[in-house]
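Archive entry: two folds, one per protein. Generate the first.
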Amino acid sequence: MFNVLTNSDPWSVEMAEKFKGKVKVTTAVKEYINNEKKKGVKPKFTEDVISVKDPALVAIKDVIEACFERNPDDRPSAHQIVEHFETVIDYLQEFYDTKTGSKLKPNNHMSLKEWIAANNRFQITNP
């Protein structure tokens, strides 16, 4: 999912910063990534991904962030991920033309968070 959202591999930002843009996977790169994972560091998103507003892309980003939690008990189950995406799909079908992306109810539009709260729907939250 990280690759779908960012068009790059997890840790590519960190590898480019640490290894001066050289992202060839070497033993040093693997060791660096493993050490970062052990410390609980999550891969970074680029600024364009951080600032994304599209609810579908935000849903993917939320799942990715939750899946990178260090403690396995804090990570969502496959069932929770499916339920999260079903919630977002229902929201999108109510408020957006899924073919064009235009809002169906511009005067009565709710944010995803507002809609989830109003409809008591499941959403993955990141600790």
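Generate the second and append.
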Amino acid sequence: MRIPKTVVIAGHTITIKYKKEIIYNGANCWGLYCDDKHIIYLKMGMEKSRKSEVFLHECIHAIEFIHNLKLSEKSVNLLGIELFAFIRNNKIRLV
């Protein structure tokens, strides 16, 4: 999956940026969505499949925050993994 430079979620343009290190609540992370800045950060150097999965995970967080869904991290993880598997296993090409 090609990761775009921006995505639009619920009318908000979300910028995708890469960082060498992402720390949240004292822990190293693969990705992070910052709602106040509308930025998804992805860790540099991830393998392609991991990067796609993390990108989808952070997009789910963006949807969650924008719509105040209050999903658990477990639910966000599961949705990210399953959406990635659905796209890959069904050979769905996303531009």
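Annotation attached to the second fold: Strands lie at 6-9, 12-19, 23-24, 27-28, 31-34, 39-43. The radius of gyration is 13 Å.
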